[in-house]
Amino acid sequence: MITMKKRIFRLLPIFMVMLVILVAYKPVDRLFEIQKNLDIFATLYKEINTYYVDEVNPNTIIKVGIDAMLNSLDPYTNYIPEDEIEDYRTMTTGQYGGIGALVGTRDNKSVVLMPYENFPAYKNGLKIGDEIIKINGIPLKNKNQNEVSKLLKGQAGTVIKLEVKSLGQTTTKEIEFKRETIKIDNVRFFTMVNQEVGYLSLTDFTHNASKEVKNAIEKLKEQGAKKIILDLRGNPGGLLSEAVNISNLFIQKDLDVVSTKGKVVEWNKTYKALNSPYDTELPLIVLTNGRSASASEIVAGVIQDYDRGVLIGQKSFGKGLVQATRPLSYNAQLKVTTAKYYTPSGRCIQAIDYGKRKADGSVDKFADSLRKEFKTKNGRKVYDGAGVDPDIAVPTKKTSAVLMALRSKNLLFDYAGEYFLAHKTIKPAQEFRLSEAEYMEFIKWVKTKNVVYTTQTEKMLKDLEEKAKDERTFGGLEAQIKALQTKSQQNKEADLLTFKEEIRQNLESEIVAFYYFEKGQNLLDFNYDADLKMALEIFKDMNKYQELLKSKK
User: Fold this and answer.
1) Distance of alpha carbon 299 from alpha carbon 237, whole angstroms
2) Is 389 a catalytic site residue?
3) Start-end ranges of CATH 2.30.42.10 in the chain?
4) Which CATH architecture has domain 95-183?
5) Catalytic (active site) residue 319
6) CA 232/CA 304 separation, integer angstroms
7) Residue 213 has what DSSP assignment?
8) Whether the Cβ atoms of residue 250 and residue 305 lie closer than 8 Å to each other
9) Which of the residues 112, 232, 308, 545 has an alpha carbon 20 to 30 A from that of 101?
């Protein structure tokens, strides 16, 4: 009899050959699949180009195909054709050649929404509400915001002519500008909120963001700041290097800031604090919300993991993915997700699992039951898989249907323009309030605009009516449903009073912008900012601040 040992020994060469075949098969098989599908794609396009009933634009149809392919991966992997490279550079650098104004569409008109101070638009007298009719002789009628933006941008030093109709005027005038290099600051606003607390808002992570944060804190310290509030709310992120450098301002040199891990092992890296910190003792509160993403979450995660400061606000967005830019043919670029990032405690805060897309194309968030526990430096519990949780959560109010309707129809903006024309001056931004009589005038004005919207209650009642009809029970419920619908309509008519405070705050902000621009809006908003008020409350009691950073055993 052949022993088991001898049998294994005889079969060993066969096992080895099979192993080699299996190992070799997968890459070859994968390469064949790639080549096969590329060939199918090319021949399919040739057939469409030859036989489709109408002419096919090759650039358009191929880009649609590319975009659909990339959309099956994640929202952050994007194809950037050559003609969009400048827009991408603007997004990553915060710099472009132009006049320095935010222009948007209002009632199919191109309207100045915000001229940035000390840039050509501001210096040449463009005001909020001014309508731009033509750019270099090109009419803007039927052009979208992106098309208008491209016409406004150009090489610094070049001349651009705008035909403008000023707010409240019927005639137009031509204004000539010389484009400048426009660099929108990452820290657009900082101020003292009381005698010892400084506040700065970081809106982006483009080049020099860390220098701007440091400079702002230095200036606040000169004004007496002994505590700092760093506002990351609404910050979508940006450069990883700037997130590392900003974190480094507050933590010791050589500490881990963030690690990246992906398929290309050679690209995996742990980023450390390479410089001496700016200040490791300065009491710090970081504000976050659901639109704080990516680089914002790295900074917030670092501050939390090292118990360096207190996080206040709402759970962050949950983008734990890193993108790199790769060159393509014909000067195009691919922005591709290459890795996930991990905060110093080891957690990845990515909230959506794009690797497990359903058959219908939808993607779920990571289940709470799958979230893993990690520990901060002091032993506080933190979790992965769903953004960065604040140390103190501040609830937010859901925006009312009537306010959303007023915004979508630009009625707040339009009324603010009329108010501006009727009032030469108003009180300083932080002191401005609409009187009861002025708000009632606004209600009277709105009622002439035929604002139509559907509340959640109305939708539910309509669904109930349809369900009752399907189940043939509507006859017995009709009177009650109709009564509720009537009551809902009556409540809706009173919405402008029911949600007066919410609407008035937003209207005041729009009005203040006409007089004091973005800085004025920020100052006014302090009066209603629940997150900021909570931060100031915590800073009043430094024992509580320190207690929040200790482990809860």
Assistant:
1) 10
2) no
3) 95-183
4) Roll (2.30)
5) yes
6) 14
7) H
8) no
9) 232
295, two tokens: 């680089």
* Structural contact between residues 256 and 283, judged by C-beta atoms closer than 8 angstroms: no
Contact 159/178 with Cβ under 8 angstroms? yes
| Pairing verdict, β 180-183 and 95-98 | antiparallel
Helix (H) or strand (E) segment spanning residue 506: helix 500-525
Residues of the chain with CATH 3.90.226.10: 187-329+337-396
- pTM here? 0.84
d(CA 444, CA 447): 5
Secondary structure (DSSP) of 368-397? GGGPPEEE-TT--EEESSS-PPPSEE---P
Tell me how many degrees the CA angle 263-266-268 measures, rounded to the nearest 5: 70
Cα–Cα–Cα angle for 113, 114, 118, rounded to 5 degrees: 155
Paired strand residues for 270: 259
Residue with tokens 């358009």: 60
Question: What is the C-alpha end-to-end distance of the chain, expressed in Å?
Answer: 66
Of 110, 149, 247, 294, catalytic: 294
User: Quick one: tokens of 216?
Assistant: 């702002």
CA distance 435 to 414: 19
Residues 275 and 248: beta-carbon distance below 8 Å = yes
User: What is the CATH T-level fold of the domain 187-329+337-396, as seen in this structure?
Assistant: 2-enoyl-CoA Hydratase; Chain A, domain 1 (3.90.226)
Q: Is 5 exposed, middle or buried (0-12, 13-18, 19+ CB in 10 A)?
A: exposed
Report d(CA 37, CA 23) in Å as an integer: 22
Position 430: which residue type?
Answer: Q
Collect all residues with Cβ–Cβ distance below 8 Å to 150 and sequence separation of at least 6: none
Tens of pLDDT along the chain (553 residues) come to 445 444 444 444 444 444 444 444 456 677 888 888 888 888 988 888 898 888 888 888 888 888 888 888 888 998 888 878 777 777 777 778 899 999 998 888 899 999 988 889 898 889 999 999 999 999 998 888 888 988 998 888 999 999 999 998 899 999 998 999 888 899 999 999 999 999 999 999 998 999 999 999 999 999 999 999 999 999 999 999 999 999 999 999 999 999 999 988 888 999 999 999 999 999 999 999 999 999 999 999 999 999 999 999 999 999 999 988 899 888 889 999 999 999 999 999 888 877 777 666 677 777 777 788 999 999 999 998 888 999 999 998 889 989 999 998 999 999 999 999 999 999 999 999 999 999 999 999 998 887 776 777 777 777 777 787 777 776 777 777 777 777 666 566 688 898 999 999 999 999 999 999 999 999 999 999 999 999 999 999 999 999 999 977 6
Catalytic position from the list 130, 256, 305, 529: 305
Selecting among 227, 319, 409, 492, the annotated active-site residue is: 319
Strand pairing category for 310-313 and 284-288: parallel
Verify whether residue 294 is a known catalytic residue.
yes
| Two tokens, residue 395 | 């609830």
Torsion of CA 155, 156, 162, 166, to 10 degrees: 140
Q: Residues 6 or more apart from 73 whose CB is under 8 A from it?
A: 337, 354
Residue position matching structure tokens 């994968």 = 30
Burial classification of residue 98, based on how many CB atoms lie within 10 Å of its CB (0-12 exposed, 13-18 middle, 19 or more buried): buried
